Amino acid sequence: MTETTPYLARGGQKITTESTTLISSSDYLNEPRLRDWLATAFLRKSGKDSPTTHDAYKLYTILRDVFDVDRIEALFTAERKRRPELDAWFDAGFSSSFSVEDLLANPEGSLGHIFGRYIRDNGFEIDIVPRFVPRNQFEYFSLRSGQTHDLEHILLGGGFDILGELVPYWARLSNLPRFLDPELVGLINAGQVLGALRLVCRTGLHYHSAFPAAMQAMRCGMTVGEQSGPYWMRRFEDVFHLPLGEARAALGIVGAVDLDTSAASLTWPEYR
Which residues contact 116 (CB under 8 A, 6 or more apart)? Predict the structure, then answer.
């Protein structure tokens, strides 16, 4: 280190290793598929040839091999001893079994009917991933997260467009740290962190006219996440019959704003 070393470059140390391959103290950096995913998902443009939903599918396929499940299980077990509500949530092990017809049987304007109309009108399926029987606590957490994701769009105020995804993303990123151990949140939120930031990065790099809308969606998500209770433990299915405002109140969701990012999302070519 000399006086001619640029200020921001000072403090660096020469690193040596006997390894003949790339190696890091980060399990994420050690995974070559994740390095490739990160560069591609963060830097590429949008196109109909590779829908953005494929990014998420690929990411979670990779993360399954990176997650330290034993550590996650130990931390969940410890949290259950500290938090009776979390323990009861796992003990109940509730899983969705409703159909589109069940949703549409609810009154117009209710949470269930709004969700049913969305699925029916767009030809979508209820389950983002096929239903399965979880083998451990982390799998149950992941199962319920998948089952409630689209409902979180409605309840938290994010539209069903690409920038609307930022609302439930940032709500979870802001909410879970308030109720769970930091190390546990850091592990189980890895997909949320990478998934959310890829949308922010690509909007900022390639579709900057929509960047203010992306920032607004992030703020809305953080606001509802910081003000609400642990909504991800609530049984959304119990309030399908209620009007949206009443359903939010019953679930402890506070500060939700119905944000319209549909026009801004059209700057992404795959959504035109």
Answer: 100, 102, 103, 104, 106
pLDDT along the chain (272 residues), means of 10: 72 80 90 97 96 93 97 98 98 94 96 96 80 94 94 97 97 98 98 98 98 98 98 97 98 98 97 88
Quick one: 46 exposed, middle or buried, by C-beta within 10 A (0-12, 13-18, 19+)? buried
Q: How many angstroms separate the CA atoms of 159 and 167, rounded?
A: 8
Q: What residues contact residue 155 under an 8 Å CB cut-off, 6+ apart? A: 111, 231, 236, 244, 247, 248, 251, 253, 256
Residue 248 and residue 52: Cα distance in Å, rounded? 29
Residue type, 68: D
Single-letter amino acid code for the residue at 226: E
* Contacts by 48-55, CB closer than 8 A, 24 or more apart: 48/269, 48/270, 51/270, 52/162, 52/199, 52/268, 52/270, 55/195, 55/198
Domain spans in the chain, listed from the N-terminal domain onward: 68-271
Distance, CA of 10 to chain centre: 37
